[in-house]
Amino acid sequence: MEFKDIFDRLLVVLAKSDDPRLKEEAAQLKTESNAIFNEREQSNRASLSALQSIDSNLKGIEGSLSGKNDPATANGLPVQSVSSIDAILLKNARGIFNENYQVRRQSFNDLMRYWRSDPNTIPALLQAANEQPNLNKKLDGVTNAIRIMRYVERRFLKPNTTNVSELVKKIEDLPGTKGAILARELRFMKDRLRRAATGV
């Protein structure tokens, strides 16, 4: 993956897009790309994972830009399946359920920093949650998954409202005490689902 290729694609998006939101996303990715490039030049410690995250987010923006009039898209967004989820994204989604606290924290931070504008983030989190044999023993991961979904852009939440609602119901039905933080996240998530469904 070449830095110049990503940078050139970002410039194309910024030049072609008349959507303020897409331009803002692309501009943010451009800033992150510059930071990674400068770090590589200065200390040779550029994060390949971060660059791949930017590439994935950029693909989502490019898909939105090119798919506005494409019948193969829904609401101007590229139609994607769980099987097409980037391997790094899915690894991070699974990471928030890891037994190791450091892995969970790093995965959470990466998802919040690099993946909130990716159309595949919610499907990845849903897949990772559904892979857990006992969610009641992974409440920290469950809390982080719900929190990340709350901060993913609404346009990516709306196509997934049914599946997210099912996960919320599943979590609420878990036996035992869930704790105040998870209860709060679930309450906020249900409110966001309602607003996404009604367009408020």
Shape: globular
Largest sheet: spatial strand order: 1-2
Distance between the termini: 40 Å
Strand count:
2
Mean pLDDT: 75
N-to-C order of helices and strands: HHHEEHHHHHHH
Helix content: 55-70%
List keywords for this structure.
10 helices
Structure explained in plain terms:
- Helices cover 69% and strands 2% of the residues.
- With 200 residues, it is mainly alpha-helical.
- It has a two-stranded antiparallel sheet.
- A hairpin with a 2-residue loop joins strand 1 and strand 2.
- Helix 7 packs parallel to helix 10.
- About 12% of the residues have low confidence.
Short description:
The protein is an all-alpha fold and 200 residues long. Helices cover 69% and strands 2% of the residues.
Task: Describe the secondary structure blueprint for this structure.
Elements: H1 3-16, H2 20-43, H3 48-66, E1 73-74, E2 77-78, H4 87-95, H5 101-114, H6 121-130, H7 139-151, H8 154-157, H9 161-172, H10 180-198
Antiparallel strand pairs: 1-2
Helix pairs in contact: 1-2, 1-3, 2-3, 4-5, 4-6, 5-7, 6-7, 7-10, 9-10
